[in-house]
Design brief:
single chain; about 15% strand; 9 helices; alpha/beta; about 240 residues; binds pyridoxal-5'-phosphate
Length: about 240
């Protein structure tokens, strides 16, 4: 990118980021919450490392990626920007070891098999603990082709397994609003599930919900982390 293009991109990201931050602030006000309770995780999938660099300069503290090895390469290209890297995508257990080496937080723990895989990787990556959200499915259990996440009936067991692994720190729940259902209804269910989990595990007090289209509904339902891609970076370019 030449200087002019880099400056233009920076101006676009700064304006988008300001708009998203003010949406978050308004939603917090509406929900009677402090804006400092909500962490913005900018989802940078399909966008280049140069954008991540600009975001860091603009004060973004947390970024998220959904695919290995794209995430690994971008993380390496970015060097030390002082960002927290979240993994938010479907994770296969054979990739868990790699992801645990370059991500600080895994938001998409949705299967038992991932627990020993991530735990073992934490030790060999020389880090003390990996922060983990358990991803729960908000889909109608009867629906076909649901989005990822552990089915509600199996949530307690998975939460328990994560909490028992000393290498993993259970930080809370993550979910994606189901397609074709109103986000406020889904997020209200999520809030109830989260309250149940917190009764047994008070430390699991983070709730990751809300994306570009529905962050207000998520904040209303108690989200502590919103995952925003398009509203900050624009429509995603397709690499494939
Ligand atoms: C891509 C993605 C997002 C961001 O979605 P936008 O609609 O671009 O804001 C959030 N969460 C997950 C899990 C994603 O894969």
């Amino acid at each position: 990118m030449n200087d002019r293009a880099a400056q233009d991109r920076r101006a676009v990201l700064a304006a988008n980021l300001a708009a998203v931050r003010s949406r978050i602030a308004r939603a917090c006000e509406h929900a009677d919450r402090a804006a400092s309770e909500v962490t913005l995780v900018v989802i940078t999938k399909n966008f280049p490392a140069s954008d991540v660099q600009i975001l860091a300069e603009l004060g973004v503290t947390d970024v998220g990626e959904n695919r290995h090895p794209e995430a690994m390469h971008k993380r390496a290209e970015c060097g030390e920007l002082g960002l927290r890297w979240h993994f938010v995508g479907a994770l296969q257990s054979n990739k868990a070891a790699s992801v645990a080496t370059y991500c600080d937080v895994v938001q998409s723990v949705d299967r038992h098999k991932l627990v020993p895989a991530l735990a073992a990787a934490v030790g060999s990556a020389g880090r003390e603990q990996l922060e983990c959200f358990v991803q729960v499915s908000l889909d109608d259990p009867e629906a076909m082709g649901g989005r990822s996440g552990v089915p509600r009936a199996m949530l307690d067991g998975l939460v328990d397994a994560v909490s028992r692994a000393p290498e993993l720190r259970l930080v809370g729940l993550m979910a994606v609003a189901p397609l074709g259902a109103p986000a406020p209804v889904a997020f209200a269910q999520l809030r109830q599930l989260h309250a149940q989990v917190m009764r047994a595990y008070p430390g699991a007090d983070w709730l990751s919900a809300g994306m570009s289209a529905d962050l207000e509904a998520a904040i209303q339902a108690g989200a502590t982390h919103v995952r925003v891609g398009r509203a900050v970076l624009g429509e995603r370019p397709r690499f494939e």
